[in-house]
């Protein structure tokens, strides 16, 4: 038993130090020689985390899926929370954020239920970075909050993980941070115990302040840290961008070594990302090319007329959410869903609207000066905010029409694109109402935009997942 504990201490240290290839080899040895099923569950989780680190992401996902299904059937909560969170991490790593949030949600709920605070904070940290990729600005604030909690509980590695991911999320979201604050976050990471986190933090520092700092010394430091790691658990794309731009500053000996390192540990992650996108989008037309959602530019005008309910169950679900959170939704009118009557025809059940004065320039003349009752201003959906702040899937409470928009649904499993520039708007009635989606910044085709399926990738991935369930 003492040897097992010693082994676990060594393996835990190897995890923090990103000795991922070592972890894979050691956990495979343990699993091949240990018949103790209780410990094998933990060892399998360790093996799968090692796979994430070395870039064997498909193996990691299939392994976590298999473990999750087994533990779900057994109702083994003491391990299920770890597996659900691990499953969420690898799904997010592979770009399947909208599915990952389902498993983060489950893992966090169980962690609260059984009082496993270490896993609760660990899951919240990884979920917050996934939220940053999702475009959620509050993710940085959430990371600061959990970092403080980790400090109070003496969870040293988690404190460092949160510090690193604050910088990563700042870069992802294109936010600003004071240079002194960034330095404090970097200095809080022990490079001997967590070289991978330190390397990511330095890469973010270069991205944020590269113009004003001595790049050469920092890049050499970054490369030295990476060469002490066997892959990285985090967001490797920022490191890759920095190396692409500044590798010529590194001396020839280190340059050759880091080129080999990148080929071994970064290329598999990039290749996997491409593989996943190909699986979902290979046969889809690149047009229309869109710029995507930017609430700073549009004020959330897609919500100007509220949203139609898909069915009675969806309406009852949203009413229950409101009833269970009366204080949170105190701004709603007493009746917030009703029949929508247009030209003496009832078109369906719809969320009511309220008067709203938009700040948007070039507001479509045929749009009403109104906003969905659930909008809390500046395009922020109160249903999504409640879910996000409660450790739930961000879209848990939103109507399907909202989270999928402007994707037009699925036809035999194939997502239907928004209209192209030359297509008639599907909401066209006459000259008095020439359309809807083509008059929104997120649905208007632009030569400078990206393929629509890449812009609205998460809605497509989530929609396909729910169709298969």
Decide which structural class fits the backbone.
mainly alpha
Kindly state the number of beta strands: 8
> What general outline do the C-alpha atoms trace?
globular
**What assembly state would you assign to the polypeptide chains in this entry?**
single chain
Radius of gyration, in Å, reads 24 Å
Tally of helical segments: 21
Structural notes for this entry:
With 469 residues, the protein is mainly alpha-helical. The protein contains 21 helices and 8 strands. The strands form 4 sheets. A two-stranded antiparallel ribbon has the order 1-8. The protein has a two-stranded antiparallel sheet with strand order 2-3.
Features:
single chain, 469 residues, mainly alpha, two-stranded antiparallel sheet, 8 strands, 6% strand, globular, disordered N terminus
Structure described in brief:
This protein is mainly alpha-helical. It is built from 21 helices and eight strands. A two-stranded antiparallel ribbon has the order 1-8. The protein has a two-stranded antiparallel ribbon with strand order 2-3.
What is the secondary structure topology, with strand pairs?
Blueprint: H1 2-16, H2 20-33, H3 37-54, H4 57-74, H5 77-93, H6 97-114, H7 117-133, H8 139-152, H9 156-173, H10 179-187, H11 195-209, H12 215-226, H13 236-246, H14 252-265, H15 267-281, E1 289-290, H16 295-298, H17 312-324, E2 337-342, E3 345-351, E4 353-355, E5 370-372, H18 382-389, H19 400-404, E6 410-411, E7 414-415, E8 450-451, H20 452-455, H21 457-468
Antiparallel strand pairs: 1-8, 2-3, 4-5, 6-7
């Amino acid at each position: 038993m003492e040897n097992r504990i010693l082994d676990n201490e060594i393996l835990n240290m190897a995890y923090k130090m990103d000795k991922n290839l070592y972890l894979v080899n050691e956990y495979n040895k343990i699993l091949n020689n240990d018949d103790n099923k209780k410990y094998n569950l933990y060892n399998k989780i360790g093996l799968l985390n090692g796979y994430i680190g070395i870039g064997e992401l498909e193996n990691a996902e299939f392994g976590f899926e298999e473990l999750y299904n087994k533990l779900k059937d057994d109702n083994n909560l003491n391990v299920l929370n770890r597996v659900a969170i691990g499953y969420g991490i690898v799904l997010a790593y592979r770009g399947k954020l909208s599915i990952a949030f389902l498993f983060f949600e489950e893992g966090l709920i169980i962690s609260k239920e059984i009082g496993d605070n270490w896993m609760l904070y660990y899951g919240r940290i990884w979920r917050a970075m996934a939220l940053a990729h999702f475009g959620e600005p509050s993710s940085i604030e959430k990371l600061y909050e959990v970092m403080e909690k980790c400090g109070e509980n003496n969870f040293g590695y988690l404190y460092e993980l949160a510090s690193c991911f604050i910088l990563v999320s700042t870069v992802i979201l294109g936010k600003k941070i004071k240079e002194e604050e960034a330095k404090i976050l970097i200095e809080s990471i022990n490079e001997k115990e967590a070289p991978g986190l330190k390397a990511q933090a330095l890469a973010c520092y270069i991205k944020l302040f590269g113009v004003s700092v001595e790049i050469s010394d920092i890049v050499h430091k970054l490369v030295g840290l990476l060469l002490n790691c066997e892959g990285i658990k985090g967001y490797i794309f920022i490191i890759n961008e920095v190396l692409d731009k500044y590798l010529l500053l590194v001396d020839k000996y280190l340059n050759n070594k880091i080129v080999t390192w990148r080929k071994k540990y970064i290329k598999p992650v990039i290749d996997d990302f491409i593989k996943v996108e190909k699986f979902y989008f290979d046969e889809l037309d690149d047009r229309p090319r869109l710029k995507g959602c930017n609430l700073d530019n549009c004020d959330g005008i897609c919500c100007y007329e509220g949203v139609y309910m898909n069915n009675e169950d969806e309406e009852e679900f949203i009413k229950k959410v409101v009833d269970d959170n009366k204080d949170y939704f105190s701004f709603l009118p007493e009746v917030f869903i009703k029949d929508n009557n247009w030209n003496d025809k009832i078109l369906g059940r719809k969320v009511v609207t309220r008067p709203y004065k938009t700040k948007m320039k070039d507001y479509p003349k045929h749009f009403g000066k109104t906003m969905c009752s659930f909008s809390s201003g500046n395009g922020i959906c109160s249903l999504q905010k409640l879910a996000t702040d409660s450790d739930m899937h961000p879209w848990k409470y939103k109507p399907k029409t909202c989270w999928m928009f402007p994707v037009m649904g699925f036809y035999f499993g194939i997502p239907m694109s928004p209209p192209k520039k030359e297509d008639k708007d599907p909401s066209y009635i006459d000259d008095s109402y020439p359309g809807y989606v083509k008059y929104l910044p997120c649905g208007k085709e632009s030569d400078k935009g990206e393929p629509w399926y890449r812009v609205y990738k998460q809605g497509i991935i989530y929609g396909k997942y729910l169709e298969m369930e």
